[in-house]
Amino acid sequence: MMIAVELGLIYAVMALGVYLTFRILDFADLTVDGSFTTGASIAAVGIVSGMPPALATSLALLGGMAAGLVTGLLHTRGRINGLLAGILTQIALYSVNLRIMGKANVPLLRESTLITPLKDADLVGTWASVGMFLAVAVVILALLVWFLHTDIGLAMRATGDNPDMIRSFGVNTDHQKLLGLALSNGLVALCGAIIAQYQGFADIGMGIGMIVAGLASVIIGQAVLGRSSVAIAATAVVLGSVLYRVVIYLALKAGLNPNDMKLISAVLVVLALVVPQWKGFARMGGFMRRRMTAMAETPLVEKEG
Predict the structure, then answer these.
(1) Which of 234, 114, 243, 223 is nearest to 184 (CA)?
(2) CATH hierarchy code of domain 2-296
(3) DSSP at 302
(4) What is the pLDDT of residues 35-87, one digit of tens each?
């Protein structure tokens, strides 16, 4: 179970990237499946070549941002439909990733990575490592929430909500989309780099289905916590990522065929979209959110009269 929670916290970085395009920009970006592998391949090749793991991971982040920029330029400058632009970049990245790795799989089992200290100390799968990955997720979450409350972040949110209105205030919505897609795919690639180091290899097919996992995390989390504010919505994404991985873990423990995981992921997304529309669930969800709000507003120590 601890492994599932760890993976949920790592994949939360990718889910936050998906949240940025899917919810903030209202942009259906399918570049994710390709940029995830791009991050993994850049990090793996860099580490195998003797590069410090931190530097290789940073380059993976930049590689993902470049992939997002390509999608953005196809959409904003080439006037290609956003969905199609993402598909085109995703397809192109398959060949690019093969070029980067030189082969379909790059092993990291004997290399020093960012995860090596945890493995050497036998902390993987323990509360200690869960706490470390949680700290990383919280830092990235806090930075994203802070950014979305800056002037640029507010302009990006307005671009997704009402592009005509924000253009009337002199904001270039094309630039906002370029920035949002770059940041989103940068986070996705960063997640891919960490996952490659966590599992000990980078593989050309490891990004397949990442967009579904990201959407599942966003939808499941926000079905539980809602999205009344940016902070709550982004926190819900992290929670959704953990819940998604735990459900996958429980499905495997129940004896389901690992080959059916993509089908299970699709079913989870469908349920997360359909179930919240049921009246009973909506009432229960509203009750839970009211309770959480009340708990947050209640002082820890009652004042003595």
Answers:
(1) 234
(2) 1.10.3470
(3) P
(4) 999 999 999 999 999 999 999 999 999 999 999 999 999 999 999 999 999 99
